[in-house]
Structures are given as C-alpha cells and as structure tokens.
Amino acid sequence: LTGCWDQMQLRHLKLVDIAGIDIDEKSGNIVLQYVVTSLKKPGQGGGESNSEVTALKGPSLVEAVSESEYIDRAPFLGVNTRIYAISKSFASHDPVPKLNFLLQAPYAAINAPLVVFDGSISKILKTNVKNKKEFTNLLYEFVSSLEKNGIMSNVTLMRFIQSNKDPLEDIALPLLKQSDSENVELNGAILFRQGTNTGVNLSKEQV
Fold this sequence. Notes:
- The protein has seven helices and nine strands, in the order E-E-E-H-H-E-E-H-H-E-H-H-H-E-E-E.
- By secondary structure, it is α/β, with parallel strands linked by helices.
- Strands 1, 2, 3, 4, 5, 6, 7, 8 and 9 form a nine-stranded mixed beta sheet that branches.
- Strand 2 and strand 3 form a beta hairpin.
- The termini are far apart.
C-alpha cells in the first residue's frame, strides 16, 4: 500500500500531529518538537498508529526544520498538523518573525490552532505521548472545546502571524499547563498586540 508522496509506503510516512516550539535559553537555539504518528502494520484501509516525539534544533526555525533531512530518509509531513504549541518562553521572544516563514512553507497546516504551554514543551509532550496513546486526539478535542464551550476563541497560526500587520488587533492565546501526570488544563491566557507579547497574563477566571 502506497501513499501519494512519491509513492512512499504508508508505514514510512511521518505525519506530524503536533508541532511544539521552544527556545533554549542558554544557546538561544530554537527547539522544534514534532509529535509524529506513523503506521505500524498498515493494511487495507487502516493500520495501527504509533506516536513518538522527535526533537530538532537550530539557530532559527527554518534551520531546525531542515535538520529533519539528516536524521531520517522519511519526510516529516506537516499538512495534517492539528496543533501548534509554543512555550511561554518562546512567546516572550518576539515570536512572529521566527514563525513567519511557515506561511510559505510547503505542507504547513497554517489554519491549525495555536496555543502556549507553561513549562517545558519537550517534557510535557514526551510525558503525555508516553503515558497516553490518544494524547494527540485528547489535546485537540480539549483545545477545540474552549471555543465550542464559549470559553475563548481559537486562534490559528496564520491569524497570529498576520496580526503583526494590524495595529488594532489584540489576540489572546490560551495558556495551558500540565496539571498532573495525566492531564493538561487551561491556566489562563496571554495577550498579544501586533504579534508581540504585551506581558499581560489573564488568569483562568478572567478568560
């Protein structure tokens, strides 16, 4: 059974479910965490899915993405990325110029929602992917429920990047945290003006 990307077998495709972006405070490097789903035992019409976290690093997001070419022959395909997550630290370092190239990047799912994680994205993703087989689905459903339940609107990656050109648009991104070893919860929101962190954090009660 083959896919449509150069006739590559499905079991060799690496489909990015979550793209987590952090910054190494010591080196200043960008750390890109992919939660990747691949198919084990692919068969007619299905197969068993398996998720794992892959870390890529570089002086910029572009260079971090390019590192994937050297660690595996199989491509990382972001066309189905369901969530983009940035760390609170990354969000405080003028994030839009670092994310801007994704608007032209091939296979980038720029209409996926963007959230902020309080704490180490690497630790949060690795812990949850290891402990919960359905973590990607659970996180996506939780983020979607924020808008469905009238708590706060989802903001796509594209809207966030383009907001830096609109002096009148303020954006609130949901701030999530690891509540315990099993769950991620809403911890408030961070306000941005023209894509820049204003330093104003809303509590969970204020959202």
